[in-house]
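Fill in residues.
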């Protein structure tokens, strides 16, 4: 069941990742980046369904026998995953995520082989404990994916490194930044707004050129900023602690 879930999740991840690459258009002014979360949300739904069925099976606990074919089948499954992981490692982009994700499937495979082998040779109870561990691991993964999605849904601020990088860009161009608001869109793209204090005697052409330069540099790093000018008067200066 986790193998079917894995395949479905992969197909949906590719589908949503492709649509997230589209440039901004009339109905998505800020780009389509967040559509990529369709893949993570599908993963949540598919694995939650599987986790529910597995929980029901685990609850109806009774003695059972483990066939020797079980570790053999698990071994065949692990072999297929090994091929998939080595092929996807050679490719780039979304497939590197897939190879990481599927690597956990390999660990699961090893647990299944050992626990079902011990279950067949010694006691079904060892096999049951293996199943419990794997079920708990699915719930752990669900929680991980959920908090990952919530980070971006909640418009979290970027790391201090990213903020420092933006501020540094303004400093290099001798613009005094009075306010900066940035949100992390999908882990590699950032969007936000900055307020720059300007003096009445400043040359608007020079200012515009500086702003264009900053925007271009930041855009190359995946940061999309709206830059607003605010006239430095005595009141504004006091407001920003000058
Ligand atoms: Zn669109």
């Amino acid at each position: 069941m986790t193998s079917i879930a894995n395949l479905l999740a992969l197909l949906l991840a590719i589908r949503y990742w492709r649509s997230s690459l589209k440039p901004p258009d009339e109905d998505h002014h800020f780009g389509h980046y967040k559509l990529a979360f369709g893949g993570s949300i599908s993963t949540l739904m598919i694995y939650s369904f599987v986790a529910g069925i597995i929980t029901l099976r685990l609850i109806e606990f009774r003695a059972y026998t483990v066939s020797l074919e079980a570790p053999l089948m698990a071994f065949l499954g692990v072999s297929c995953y090994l091929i998939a992981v080595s092929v996807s490692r050679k490719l780039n982009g979304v497939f590197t995520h897939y190879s990481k994700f599927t690597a956990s499937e390999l660990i699961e495979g090893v647990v299944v082989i050992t626990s079902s082998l011990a279950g067949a040779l010694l006691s079904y109870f060892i096999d049951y404990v293996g199943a419990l561990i794997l079920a708990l691991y699915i719930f752990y993964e669900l929680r991980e994916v959920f908090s990952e999605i919530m980070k971006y849904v909640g418009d979290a601020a970027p790391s201090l490194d990213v903020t420092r990088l933006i501020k540094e860009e303004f400093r290099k161009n001798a613009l005094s930044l009075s306010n900066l608001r940035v949100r992390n869109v999908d882990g590699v793209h950032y969007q936000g707004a900055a307020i720059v204090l300007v003096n009445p005697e400043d040359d608007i052409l020079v200012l515009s050129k500086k702003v264009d330069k900053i925007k271009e540099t930041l855009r190359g790093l995946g940061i999309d900023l709206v830059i607003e000018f605010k006239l430095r008067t005595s009141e504004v200066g006091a407001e920003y602690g000058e």
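Strands lie at 176-184, 190-198, 223-231.
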